[in-house]
Amino acid sequence: MNRLDKLKPAGGFSAIVHVLLVAVLPLIVFILVRLSFVPLAYAVILASKWRMLAVRPRHWPANIRANAIDIIVGLSFVSFIAGAPSQQSWQLVWAICYGIWLTLIKPRSSTFWNAIQAGAGQILGLASIYALWGRSSLLVLVVATWAVCYLAARHFLSSFDEPLSSMISHAWGYFGAALTWVLGHWLLYYAFISQPMLILSVLGVGIATLYYLETNDRLSVFVRREILLVMSAVIIVVLLFSSWGDKAV
Fold first, then answer.
1. pLDDT digits (tens), the chain, 249 positions
2. Are residues 164 and 95 in the same domain?
């Protein structure tokens, strides 16, 4: 047995600590936010991923990339809990949603669930970015959007035998960054949903669905046209009926 195998929480004290941490993590985050220790709640999310650095440094980039979506989702839920109305019930709802992610969604590894995880990571990550940093520098929004889109694409394509996964992921990240650079000059919000997040979510889900169905030989001409029509309709409505000014709507 090599050193890397020993670090896997297959049993023993490490496995017990890991299971307990996953079970109580949403509760810990909820309590910390209620006590106004929000930075500490973010730190707990990062600390919960200590195992990805418990290997030789040359493995760190791959481990960080593999755990990126879980980190993005965790940090996003902290921001949602902290930004929820002061009533405890709304904060508790977000904590429960995080618990569902940790126990029901994150552990699954099939192609379908990897796609769900990637979509959730991109949508939740973009939502938290524009909620927290909507008034910050445009460069910050561009870089953050690029990172989330790139990592979501890498997570999605990791389940497929795609030789161009790296290039496709970089292309999607670049597209998200470029779209943010353009729309960031007229950053609009529909309630709490930002325009870049809405467009990237619609396009991302649509393109991922087309790719998933095509690789599983389930994409008919009718379904392809239906998905493209829905994507086009949403984008056209957003572009035509938005109030193009430097304000939120």
1. 444 444 444 556 666 666 677 778 999 999 999 999 999 999 999 998 888 888 888 888 989 999 999 999 999 999 999 988 766 788 999 999 999 999 889 989 899 999 999 999 999 999 999 999 988 899 999 999 999 999 999 999 998 989 999 999 999 999 999 999 999 888 888 888 899 999 999 999 999 999 999 998 899 999 999 999 999 999 998 888 777 654 544
2. no
Could you identify the residue written with the tokens 């959007």? 145
Same domain, 103 and 151: no
Please indicate, yes or no, if residue 119 is contained in any of the structural domains. Answer: no
Task: Tell me how far apart the alpha carbons of residues 175 and 181 are, in angstroms, rounded to a whole number.
Answer: 10
User: Scanning the structure block, which residue is given the tokens 């001409």?
Assistant: 221
d(CA 116, CA 194): 21
Residues 142 and 197 occupy one common structural domain: yes
Q: Which residues span the domain enclosing 41?
A: 1-107
Q: Please indicate, yes or no, whether residues 133 and 224 belong to a single structural domain of this protein.
A: yes
- Is there a domain that residue 112 lies in? no
Largest Cα span, the chain:
62
